[in-house]
Amino acid sequence: MPENREVKVPPLGESVSEATVARWTKKAGEAVVADEILVELETDKVTLEVTAPANGVLQSIAQQQGATVLVGDILGVVEVGGVATVAPAPVAPKAEAPALQSQPTSLANTDTLSPAVRRLVTENNLKPETIAATGKDNRLTKADVVTHLATATAVQPMEVPTYHSDKQEERVRMTRLRQRIAERLKQAQNTAAILTTFNEVDMTAVNACRARYKEKFEKKYGVRLGFMSFFVKAAIQALKEIPAINAEIDGEDIIYKNYYDIGVAVSAPQGLVVPVVRGADMRSFAELEAKIGELGLKAKDGKLSMNDMTGGTFTVSNGGVFGSLMSTPILNPPQTGILGMHKVQDRPMVVDGKIEIRPMMYIALSYDHRLIDGREAVTFLVRVKENIENPERLLLEI
User: Fold this and answer.
1) Annotated active-site residue in 73, 261, 281, 369
2) Of the residues 80, 100, 117, the one at which a domain ends
3) Residue 55 sits in a domain of what CATH number?
4) Domain boundary pick from 80, 112, 135
5) Identified catalytic residue from 35, 301, 346, 373
6) What domain range includes position 237?
7) 369 is a catalytic site residue
8) Is residue 315 part of a domain?
9) What pLDDT is attached to residue 111?
10) How many domains would you assign to the chain?
11) CB 58 within 8 A of CB 32
12) What pTM value is reported for the model?
C-alpha cells in the first residue's frame, strides 16, 4: 500500500507565525527526490525552502502560490515511491533567428536597364521610376543610381515617434518581506525620536593600510580586506565608550547590552535585509570580513536563516557601494543607533595650513533621541572618525 507523506509549513522562527507561498518548483504528479526543493515560502524576514521528505511523486498541492499559511499547515502530499504521471517541464530550446533571404523586388521598366544598373537597383531594392535619369533617351545610368544612393544615405528623413495615450501599468502584490520592511520603517519613525548627526572621515590612512597589506591579507586569510571590518571595529570601540547607543528601550526600562552583535545592512533581490555578525567584538579583521562576505552571499541567494536575522544590537549600513554621498539612515527597531557609511570622494582639505586633496567620506549616525543625547551622538561619531583616521587605535583599543 503506498505511503503518503504530508509536506507541512516548518517552524518559521521566533515571533513569526505565518508565511506566503512564493513559488512551487514542482507540479502535482511530477517525480521528486528526497531533500529536493518543492516550494519556497516567504516570511517577513527570510525566504524558506521546503524540501521533499522522500523519493516519490508530488501527489497534490494544497496551497497555491500567493496563499498565506501558518506553521503546521499542509502544503502538499508526497506519495513515497509513486510513479510520476506528469513529465518535467522541458527546457525551451533557444529560438534561432530565421535566415534572411534576399527577396528580389518587382521592378518596372527593368528590361531597359543595363546589366550593371539592373544589379544595383535589385541589390538595393530601388524603384527605377523614382530615380532621376540623365542618360541618352532618359535612360538610367550607373552614375544616376550611385548618386541616388549617396543622397538617400546622406539625407535620412527624421522619424517622428508615435506616442500612445495608453499608459502602461503593472500591479504586483508586495512580497511579505517588503511589507514587513515598510511596517518596520514606519514603526521606527512613529515610535522613536530619530535624529541624525554627521561627520567626515579622512580615509587616507585606511587606504594606505589596505594598499600595503591587501595582497598578503588575502593570500593568508582567503578574503579581501574591505572597509566594513574597519568601520565595525571602530563602531564597537565607540559603543564601549557610549553604551547607550548599544542599548534598547523596553517600556520604562533601558536594557544595556554588554555584547556586540552588529547588523550589517545589505541589499538582496527581495529587499533590504540586516543579517547579524554575532560576537563581532571578539572577531579579528579576517573573521569579520569572512562572516560579512558569507552573510552577503546568503542574502543574495535567499539563504538567510532566522538566526542570521535576529538579535542585533547596532547596525552599520554602507550606502556608498551604490554611490550615495550622504543619507540619513533609519533605525532598525528596537536598536537605538545605526551608522551610515557613504561614498569615498576626493575633496580639497586644509591639512597643517595647506590645501591637500584627500579621500573623504561622510558618515552619519541616526539615533533615538529618547535615550541618546546629542553630546553622546557627536562623541560617538568623533570616536569613529579618530579610529578610522588612526587605524592603530583599533589594534591598541584606545
Assistant:
1) 369
2) 80
3) 2.40.50.100
4) 80
5) 373
6) 194-396
7) yes
8) yes
9) 56
10) 2
11) yes
12) 0.64
CATH code (residue 380): 3.30.559.10
C-alpha distance from residue 293 to each of 222, 224, 261, 290 (Å): 11, 9, 16, 5
Query: Does residue 391 share a domain with residue 263?
Result: yes
Q: Per the domain annotation, does 85 fall within a domain?
A: no
Under the banding of pLDDT at 50, 70 and 90, the label for residue 285 is: very high
Q: Say how far apart CA 368 and CA 331 lie, in whole Å.
A: 8
Least confident range from 79-88, 232-241, 347-356: namely: 79-88
Q: Is 342 a catalytic residue?
A: no
Same-domain status, 362 and 213:
yes
The pLDDT-based confidence of 390 (bands split at 50, 70, 90) is very high
Q: Does one domain contain both 68 and 208?
A: no
Tell me the pLDDT tens digit for each residue of 71-88: 899 999 999 888 888 777
User: Does a structural domain hold residue 254?
Assistant: yes
